Amino acid sequence: AQSVSQHNHHVILSEAASLELGCNYSYGGTVNLFWYVQYPGQHLQLLLKYFSGDPLVKGIKGFEAEFIKSKFSFNLRKPSVQWSDTAEYFCAFASGGYQKVTFGTGTKLQVIP
Amino acid sequence: SAVISQKPSRDICQRGTSLTIQCQVDSQVTMMFWYRQQPGQSLTLIATANQGSEATYESGFVIDKFPISRPNLTFSTLTVSNLSPEDSSIYLCSVDSRSSYEQYFGPGTRLTVT
Asked: pLDDT digits over B37-50, tens only?
């Protein structure tokens, strides 16, 4: 069955610290990968996506993610977090020709000023 | 991008009743999706709704419990029937972009069943 694992459920960082959130997916075929973010009181929105090409993708607000096919991973990174990055982050993927998206359980990031 | 609104934003319902959630999109879309996000859990797809055809339900979700309507390309409703406390959750509507699998989400409806 298709699944997404996010390793960290709750992460607390100080401002300026570096961030890496782990994401692994379980699917043997071609995938499209996403990171979504939900800021407090706001809609779920797309942070970045990978479809093909350069496995290192850059998203909004200085976030980036690297697709490592051999590891079935799509980890999210940011070199220096800000208090405004406090949010919940969801890794997700869509497989094949069907537009169903499978989400991970989410990681709550709390950035302390 | 697409702008999605949902009504109601939240509701408290009694056991055994039903709640109908509306989802309105500001542009025409082919597919609309309904998700459930239970407390402390991820988003789970309930069903996919195409205009003019029956909704496609995911494993574990049935039409009798979650009837869906899709009368046109900008609107859909999800009804959660015969409510029990286990149905307390956030219900989200989403649509996909025309050129990718990227999805746009509504603000969600927070349902509490007492």
From this structure: 987 788 999 999 98
Give yes or no for residue A98 having a pLDDT over 60. Answer: no
Distance from CA of A9 to the nearest CA of B (A): 10
The pLDDT value recorded for residue A96 is 61
Q: Residue A60 and residue A111: Cα distance in Å, rounded? A: 18
Using a 10 angstrom Cβ sphere, with 0-12 exposed, 13-18 middle and 19 or more buried, the burial of residue B4 is buried
Cα Rg of chain B, angstroms: 13
CA distance A23 to chain B (A): 14
Report the distance separating Cα A110 and Cα A100, nearest Å: 29
- Give residue A99's pLDDT band: very low, low, confident or very high (50, 70, 90): low
Instruction: List the single residue in B100, B101, B105 with the smallest CB-CB distance to A43.
Output: B105
